[in-house]
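ok trying this again, last paste got cut off
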Amino acid sequence: MSRKVALITGITGQDGSYISELLLDRGYEVHGIIRRSSTPNTSRIDHIFDPEKYDYIHYGDLSTGITNLLYELQPDMVVNLGAQSHVRISFDVPEYTIDINALGPLRILEGIRQAGLTKKTRYYQASSSEMFGLTPPPQNENTIMRPASPYGVAKLAAFHLTRIYREGYGMFASNGILFNHESPRRGVNFVTRKITRLSCQIKLGLLNHISLGNLEAKRDWSHSRDLMRCVIKIMEHYEPEDFVVSSQEMHTVREFAESVFSYLDLDFYQYLKVDDRYTRPIEVPALCGDSTKARTVLGWEPEITFEQLVKEMVDSDMKLAIKESGI
């Protein structure tokens, strides 16, 4: 019996690397799409896929579509994690964000339809809590969505396109409305990783301050691996549905930073500089997901606490800072 085939966009990101590991453990044949880059961008998956063997890694871009690859692979599952994923940067490159985050999913959905795979291929759309925007928490699948960034608008368009292809063409197409999720594999320009990375450099005497923007933004933070476990449950569910996936706990950026610096036995406020350059034109004040549906219907529960997440990220970045500095 042949193995099921999974195709993942955004495989080089933190989510892509974790879900690849999980799917391989479940016996899937995992393929990934990466963009051509002049410098290596596969560090998160080099321990999974031999970088010298490209049988399972394919070059592509959501700006052009992947219909030919769909014809070739005939995947049982497409997990769309590819995106311009930084909310603040979406204000700087709004047109690009809309193209990749809204039209990119449309190109995949239409590619599945044109390849005649509407009854075979299951599609997952990585939706975002940023779609809720200015709507107060808690937020669930029925909450009104008022996005406050080009990123949020693009994700909302993709959310509805996924629903339309599900209802219009009978596709197995599901949205996972994931709230903020972090890990040691998080990109260095995201606030949580910025805090853990720079705090370790401060601890080692390599820096003397950290510059941050809005400290009062409240977010629902989970570990990426926990949420990817739920994504697989969504994809293996007997019918396509939309699910909020979250920890159901809310912490401010200030609390996250205080936890990090406390763990390192440092006084956060001794090193803090507030810089308005890191604020958004419109700030989303509070996001906290009500993931009751995912917990009851799918039987999913997060395994990693906020405190454990902070510790894991700091420990990883301390090892990296020591290695890079040669201390």
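PB: full thing came through this time. DSSP finds eleven helices and 13 strands in the chain.
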